[in-house]
Request: fold
Amino acid sequence: MGRSLNLVLWCAFSAFALLVVVIFVLVQNSLIMRQYRESTLTVLSEARGRMITEISSAQNASVLGLRLTDIANDYGLSVYLIYENGSSALDFDGQTSYTELASMLVEQKNQGALPGFLIAQDSVAYAEEVSLEGRSTFLYVSVAVQEYGELADGMQWLSVITALVAVVLAFVASGIVAMLITKPVTEVTERAKELARGNYDLHFRKNYFCAELTELAEALDYARSEISKADTMQKELIANVSHDFKTPLTMIKAYASMIIEISGEDKKKRDANAKVIIDECDRLTLLVGDLLDLSKLRAGLNAGERTVFNLSEEVYSVTERFSFLKETAGYTIETQIEDDLYTQANRERIDQVLYNLIGNAVNYTGEDKRVRVKLYKKGGNARFEVIDSGKGIPPEEVDTIWDRYYRSNKTHKRPVNGSGLGLSIVKNILLQHDCPFGVISEVGKGSCFWAEFAPPADEGKKSDAPEKRAKEGKS
Reply:
């Protein structure tokens, strides 16, 4: 099992905070030492300049001693003016001797280190050879760095304490931030588990602190909605298919029994009963075929080869297949078809679209039994329309008419056999061909189903020889 996101974020934030604190402490101590050293050297340089000026203009040793002492006090320094033999040129009581210091300065002079800064473990000094009353004399100005060492030690301990406090605070803050980040992720995960168990009443969308989580919640809400619809449609499909299979199977069994038990010797009755069995088998065949077609279309299979064909002729041909309704049921199918409109698609599938849409209009048209079929050029596309005079589709049902097994609550006649999958098949074929489609309906005034077909990519590929017909007519 992987590590918790909360733990990963907490460790990452804490490690980052610790790294920042360590770098800060190291840089701070380094900068303090460097700044102190540069400041000390600057002070020594300034004090040396003033002292050289006083030495060059000195009238007597007593006055010079006071002047140099004042300058040293101004900067918090110690000043020595000694001859090469170690005696002090500023000695007021004649007792002070700096033999070791003088020997060291003579050695530095012989090595070429003077004038210059002399840096020791506990002091920083500046030494230079000058001439006083005609004698070679050393000016030695120093400052003790012992206090700085103590200060640096104190700063280090203070830095360590500050770092520890900062690390503790960083751990706490990291834990809080990690919890705030992972809490909504955990909530979304728990809701997703509920969704997987079939609970579609929950909602993911909330006012999260970041756009990414909000987008994730919106995507999951959309997925929940679609899964809920699919689950409902699946249950309805199973129920409807079970019903549609059960009815013809029951009738087939019943009429087969009648042939055996009752009408076996009566040819007329036997033929009538056999005709019912054949019709019910046809219904089952139609239903199974439509289910297979829909499954293949939704899976993106059986797309078929796309060719260029005369869409006008195809609409004429499909419309004529309904001409039997004029004589048998009193239907009127009016056509208004513009000639020589071509498209590039799978001809069999488009034929299926045209047939299903016209058949749907026949099933749902009004008492006048009137259906109008149109095909005309709109923009660059060929627009196909089927208009019925039925009771129309309520606004709340417009978005669901393309679903599998959708049937309007309105009563209707069904002279054309169907499986209830026609509009769903139409939708999937048109989506597969990237064709715009839709329905315009008003309750009490009928419906207009439409689809648009793009022209061929190369107009020169037209393969069907146009057959001229009247643009308006009735069948």
In short: DSSP finds ten helices and twelve strands in the chain.
